[in-house]
Amino acid sequence: MQLLSSKYQNSYSLSKEMVNTFLKENNYIHKNIFLFDSFGNGDTRNKVTDTFIKKLISNEEIQIPTGDVSINLSFVGDICNSIMQSMSLPEGNYSVMSKNSITLHQLAEMIMNILSIQVQVKRFGTGINYLDKIQNIPENIYKKELEISFEERLKERINEIQQA
If pLDDT is split at 50, 70 and 90, which confidence band does 8 have? Predict the structure, then answer.
């Protein structure tokens, strides 16, 4: 959200921007790393991927906005590896953005296919495709250490949730 113009930001992203401004104005040397959506082992935040998985396991319908809303999903372990490898980079702005940009509808379909479960995907309300509204994305430092596909990572997460 911080990469969007202020009119699209929420209070959380604005507060992060305020901290960044404070650090700059007080000459603190720092890196600002912008993250996109994540999912992964041990994540308890009930973000969109986990919400879809849990709804499908419970055979509940999924509600998504009427328009196509895209997100960029990264496995949390890949994000951590990218951040760890960035320690030697100079101060500045960076992003961690995988090649996994997907619409909410495509994500729901992919999870349904993996689980061999079909539920109704109900289009409801208006959504904003914020990913398309980002004008400048800082240098991408995403480093994928293991050649595990996005679908395989989803399968891992589905298995973890099913076993919980």
Answer: confident
Name, in order, each residue with C-beta under 8 angstroms of 95's C-beta and a sequence gap of 6 or more. Answer: 3, 33, 34, 35, 36, 137, 138, 139, 140, 141, 142
Measured CA to CA in angstroms, residue 47 lies from 10, 53, 63, 70, 93 at distances of 17, 10, 14, 14, 25
For residue 130, which amino acid is it? Y
Measured distance CA(141)–CA(85) in Å, rounded: 8
In sequence order, the 6+-apart residues with CB closer than 8 A to the CB of 14 are: 6
Can you tell me the distance from the alpha carbon of 117 to that of 112, in angstroms, rounded to the nearest whole number? 5
Q: Which pLDDT band holds residue 144 (cuts at 50, 70, 90)?
A: confident
The enclosing H or E element of 48 equals helix 48-57
pLDDT-derived band of residue 2, with 50, 70 and 90 as boundaries? confident
On whether the pTM is more than 0.85, the answer is yes
